[in-house]
Amino acid sequence: MAELVLVEDDERMGKLLCFFLEGKGFRVHWEKNGPMGVSAIQTREPDLVILDLMLPGFDGMEVCRRVRPGYSGPILMLTASQADANEVGALNLGIDDYLTKPFRKQVLEARLRALLRRAAATPNKEPAPSDIVVGDLTMVVGRREVTLAGTRLNLTNAEYELLWFLARRPGQLITREEIYAALIGAQYQHFDRAVDMRISALRKKLDDTRAPYRFIKTVRGKGYLFGSTP
C-alpha cells in the first residue's frame, strides 16, 4: 500500500481526496498548511506527495523548496489556474507533475500511479542500455546521470525519464500522444499542456530555452524530436 502526504487547506477538497484515495488503496496523511506539510514529508518520507499551491503559512512552492534537498519521491502539485501551472513549470523546484483544478479524480489517480511506476523503475528494465552522448550532453544510463559540458544536471525523475524517452530515438518525431501515454500513463487530452510544460522545464535545465533549440526541437502541431544542433 503506497503512502502519500496530502497538503491541502480546503476542507471539502481534502475530505473528498482522502475518501477517494483511501478507497483506491492509498494510505493518506493529510496536512492543512505549509509548515505542517513540510514536517509530515520530512518525518514520514512518503511514497509520494500531493501539494496544493496556495496554502496557509507558506505556499506549495516554498514547501517544495524546503523538502527537496532531503526528499526524492514524486511531488504532484495542484494549481488553481493555467497561469499558476505555467509559473510552477517555469521554476526548477523538483515538481514531477501538476494538475489544474477542477480535475477528474480518475485523472489524479492515473497520474499518481504513473509517478509511482516511474519512481519504482530501474534503468535495467531494458536490456543493457548504452550511454548517450549528443554534443556536450552525456547521459550515463547505468547511474541515471546527465552532464552538460562536464557539469552534472540536477534532474527530477520525471525530467530524466522524459529526456531518456526522447534521446533513445534521436532524429525521430515523437508525438505528444506517445510522450503522454509513456510518461503519464493515460490517453492524451489535447487541452492538457503537461507535456509542453515538462519539455519547457527540461529545456531550462539543458540551458536550451531559445529557438532554434539545440537538443529538443519542436515539430509544430505534431510533437518533438531529439538531436544536437552545433
Automatic annotation (TrEMBL):
InterPro entries: CheY-like_superfamily, OmpR/PhoB-type_DNA-bd, Sig_transdc_resp-reg_receiver, WalR-like, WH-like_DNA-bd_sf. Coiled coil: none annotated. The keyword Transcription applies. GO terms for molecular function: phosphorelay response regulator activity; transcription cis-regulatory region binding. It holds the Pfam family Response_reg. The lineage of its organism: Bacteria, Pseudomonadati, Acidobacteriota, Holophagae, Acanthopleuribacterales. One of its GO terms (biological process) is regulation of DNA-templated transcription. PANTHER family: REGULATOR OF RPOS, TRANSCRIPTIONAL REGULATORY PROTEIN RSTA. Residues 3-116 form the Response regulatory domain. Residues 129-228 bind DNA. It comes from the Bacteria. The keyword Phosphoprotein applies. The modification 4-aspartylphosphate is found at residue 52. It comes from Acanthopleuribacter pedis. This is Response regulator transcription factor. Residues 129-228 form the OmpR/PhoB-type domain. One of its GO terms (cellular component) is cytosol. Keywords: DNA-binding, Phosphoprotein, Transcription, Transcription regulation, Two-component regulatory system. SMART domains: REC (SM00448), Trans_reg_C (SM00862).
